[in-house]
Amino acid sequence: MRLIGRSAAAVVLAAGCLAATACAPGTAAPAVDRAGDDRTGTLQVWLYNEAGNAAKEAVIAKAVGEFQASHQGVTVRVGYIDTDASARAAKMKGAFNDPNSAPDLVEFGNTDLPGYVAAGGLADIGADLDAWPDKGDLDPAIARTAVVDGRTYGLPWWVGVRALYYRSDLFTEAGLAPPASYADLVAATRSIHAAHPDTFGIAVGGKYTFGALPFVWDAGGDIAAKDGTAYKAAIDSPASQAGIKRYTDLFGADGCPAQQCADLTGGKTVDLFAAGKSAMAILPNSSRSKVDAGAVKGKYGVVPLPGEKAGSIAPAFAGGNNLGVMKAAKHRTLAVEFARLLAGPAYQEQMYDAMGNLPTLRSVSARVAAKDAFLKPFTDTIAAGTRFVPLDQAWAQIDAQSVIPTMLQQVVTGKADVAKASGDAAGRITSAFAAH
Amino acid sequence: MNSRSRWRLAADTSALVLAAATAFPVFWMVLSAFKPKGEVQSLDPKPWTAHPTLESFRQVLSVDGFGRYFVNSLVVALSVVVLSAVVVFLAAVAVTRFRFRFRTTVMVMFLIAQMIPVEALTIPLFFMFRDAGRFAPGVGLNTLASLVLVQLAFSLPFGIWMMRGFVAAVPVSIEEAAQIDGASRTRILWRILLPLVAPGLAATSVFSFIAAWNDFVFAKTFIISATENQTLPSALLVFFKPDENDWGGIMAASTLMTVPVLVFFVAVQRKLVSGLAGAVKD
Amino acid sequence: MSVPTTTAPAAPPSPGSRRGGPAPAAPPGGRRRRTPLLLLLPAAVVLVPLVAYPIYQLGLLSVLDFGQAQASGGAPTSFVGLGNYTRILQDGQFWSVLLQTVGFAAFCVLATLAVGAALAVLLTRVGRWPRLVLTTAATAAWAAPAMTGSTVWSFLFDTNLGLVNHTLVRLGLTGFHEFNWFYDKWTAFLIVGAVVVWHSFPFVMVTLYAGIRAIPEEILEAAALDGANTWTTFRRITAPMLRPILTIVVIQSVIWDFKVFTQIYVMTEGGGIAGQNLVLNVYAYQKAFASSQYGLGAAIGVIMLLVLVIPTVLYIRTLRRTGNDL
Q1: DSSP state, A122?
Q2: C181 forms bridges with which residues in the sheet?
Q3: Least packed by Cβ within 10 Å: which of A150, A304, B160, B189?
Q4: pLDDT, tens digit (0-9, with 9 covering 90-100), for A28-51
Q5: Distances from the Cα of B190 to the Cαs of B125, B175, B187, B221, B279, in angstroms?
Q6: Residue A103 forms contact with B (CB below 8 Å)
Q7: Residue B38 backbone phi and psi in degrees, to 5
Q8: Whether A94 contacts B126, CB under 8 Å
């Protein structure tokens, strides 16, 4: 390393380069050197800029007002960052690499967590949370999504889970009850498609990872399993393969024809269902407004996605966002306090009212479900137990390389059978874990 | 004679048909931007609209700080155009009017510089600008100057390659005559050669303008926390969400991004063709 | 790295404005050495730190295990030798993507040149107004940013809302009802290729048209008087005179089309169904940059560079051997 650094320095000097420190590929000084704990000044906060952000901004403005009123000499500056995957990744990497540009508190998607932790960008706030009176109220499965190697790096702020939307009018017409098992679901696609050849039995997508995973989990499979301390690919296990088969079988003529659906993302399946093009879809609670804006307003219902066993609920993916304190934060205590305010019962409920984001606190969850019957299938799904992707930075790589979508698409388009496709995927997953 | 004019008619007609086909996607983009939301998403698309509306444009213009981002983009693109014209001109004169050791190597280097995927260079560049910022905050991360500098650097290799032809096209005899008249080397360069190759500079500037105007790779890497220094493409990225096909918004954003480039093109178009013609008169 | 070597002698600045120097096109060696280096100085000042040095660092990164953790100081950097290269070269997908990239680039370059050249010739045969209209239309295609161009074309070819499917069905081709152009690998490549050509043929057309126009009328007339037919005139006069610009146009097209990113990334949503439409640049992004494996990404960058540099150098050597020069 030193040798390389020196020869690089020679080039730098010869070229009249700007800074001698740029000799080797740059690295940031460990962020912790810069951390501070000022109790006054400007608290910098980055939150996601979401669809319908005005409602979110209104709630946050209220929280900011309350916080500033109770903290003399503190100003909270909130920036809303673009949620586009590559833009937000660039932004966060920038903040890690240049601590001078870093905020104090950030909102981040819970699947991004392991990568941020490995980058050394987030502070361990486990001790701060232990002192939080509402900690015991957090849903345990969701709380686990903020823990890496026994340390807590985030405060779960909200979650979104998926359930089965179905066209109540078409089901009634066909004399069907909402599906209570996988077999029911398949039978429904068949009879509705037979009666309405232009309608897809169900909207699914070859790129819809989080639509497929519940089938895998329900069958007893997983992406990877922890073997001692190391993860091992499990996507090619017999149980996983059974789940993959159940999901990909839905891409037939009755369900969602491969020609149309092999390249769909989850977002596109919302469009299909909203346009009245499909009889069912696996969608998050937040899709409600989009569906209501479409052709099927008032003609649909929601039930938990059924598992194979009649009456069971397929485990949903617990996607959601956490609040985390940057390691380079200059106002550590203030950042934790503001996070606790935002994730506290009052603001979780207001965030639900504004954005439809599901609360992570069980008491608030029960309260909003009582207020809005629409939420019941979603809160039931959470209560039945949610699952998550491997909490390891390899996940970022597996996700970026589209390992799961590629596997699904290979099966759906007939390029490979389940055994071959899942075997390839397992190989890629294993090498991703080996690389980190 | 008759068959000849029939040929001409056929040529004229096919030129117009091809022009229509070429311009069609741009027409469709502008049209969709003016259509009401319901019509854009219609399953029965029509090549006209009875109810043009500014709804989509209003939505795009309501992006916080749109005006600011627009000006930032313009400042960056125009700075790059001006700076790169000067540097490109001097370097092109060097490689066409002089023979020196490593001349071919330098030319090949200019080619090689264009072959690297920019994405691969953002990381070393990021750290360079971060470190530079410690000594000279004016050119560090989060500044428009950093964007101007990288865009300038990436516009030079191609610019020099193109400009070479334009400089070579100017007969050496003109400079020789001026030299005999006692003009200084500097004077020959700026007062005689520069005006003669100005059309060529216009042609190359189109490329640097487009590259600088469209960039979002560097903009999103370098402008981390200074939202006031964001440029237009990274601000309009919100409309290009793969999952939410708001085609009306996307088309309005696309139109607003394309218009300045078109204006720049039209402004230099006449020079462009004469400039490119000059490059091959040698 | 020979860029620093060539610029190093330029260090002592001195105004090269002495009068009565040798004529500008004097033979090699006879010139004052400093002037060209002085003229190259501004370019060097920008390019050495901002392009040459990062390229050098790219090479360095490619032999390191360098990810986000290393970049932000969370983990030490380690030297892995050719580890990144072997990882790529052993990936079966890399070779199919490489082959695909070369094929796709070749298709785009040939199609761009064919369309551009045909339209350039057409421009010389039409009246003033049709010429203006076609040039303006081409200008619009040229000016459209890659991102917006790709988006508009995706919209036109959209499975459900697209005008193309709709029109084809109207024309009686009912098989195109909700036809997904991006389901099949080859139709997907065809459409993306069409967009690449649409974006890049105007450059070729305008440049070649300018080139043809620059050929003095007298020469062509003289050839006609000598009884040369169209083909002979083209082979003996037009083609040789266009050679320098053709060279530039071909080299640039190869470089650009080999590096196509936006069109593929936007239109096939990151490489197509099961990655069937991946090209090297998108592959590098997915494989490495999206998950912050900069060392691996740098190695792919270096490989891409080599794939382009080797034919370029060979080409330049042939040029010099045949007495031509750059």
Answers
A1: B
A2: none
A3: A150
A4: 554 444 567 888 999 999 999 877
A5: 33, 11, 5, 37, 19
A6: yes
A7: -60, -35
A8: yes
* CA-atom Rg of chain B in angstroms: 23
Six-digit token string for A320:
């959601």
User: Any CB–CB contact under 8 A between A22 and chain B?
Assistant: yes
Q: Sort out which chain C residues have CB atoms less than 8 A from B251's CB and list them.
A: 151-152, 155
C293: left (phi over 0), alpha (psi -120 to 50) or beta: beta
A284: phi then psi, degrees, rounded to nearest 5: -75, 165
Structure confidence by residue, pLDDT tens digits, B64-115: 678 888 999 999 999 999 999 999 999 999 998 888 888 888 888 888 888 8
List alpha helices for B181-216, DSSP H.
Answer: 185-187, 194-214
Q: What does the pLDDT read at residue A90?
A: 78
Tell me how far apart the alpha carbons of residues C74 and A205 are, in angstroms, rounded to a whole number: 37
Tell me which H or E stretch contains A359: strand A358-359
Helix (H) or strand (E) holding C258: helix C239-258
Please answer whether residues C211 and C242 qualify as being in contact, where contact means their C-beta atoms are separated by less than 8 angstroms: yes
pLDDT in tens, C161-220: 889 999 999 999 988 988 999 999 999 999 999 999 999 999 899 888 888 887 778 888
Mean pLDDT of chain A: 88
A418-435 helix and A238-248 helix, angle to the nearest 10 degrees? 120
Nearest by CB: C58 against B105, B124, B272: B124
- The reply to whether B247 touches chain C by the CB within 8 Å rule is yes
Higher pLDDT: A3 or C325? It is: C325
Count of C-beta atoms within a 10 Å radius of residue A423: 16
Can you spell out the DSSP letters for A273-341? HHTT-BSEEEEEGGGHHHHHTSTTTTSEEEEPPB-SSTT-BPPEE-EEEEEEEBTT-SBHHHHHHHHHH
Structure pTM?
0.85
Please answer yes or no on whether A12 and C48 come within 8 Å at the CB atom: no
Whether residue C224 contacts residue C166, with contact meaning beta carbons closer than 8 Å, is answered with no
pLDDT over 50 at A4, yes or no: no
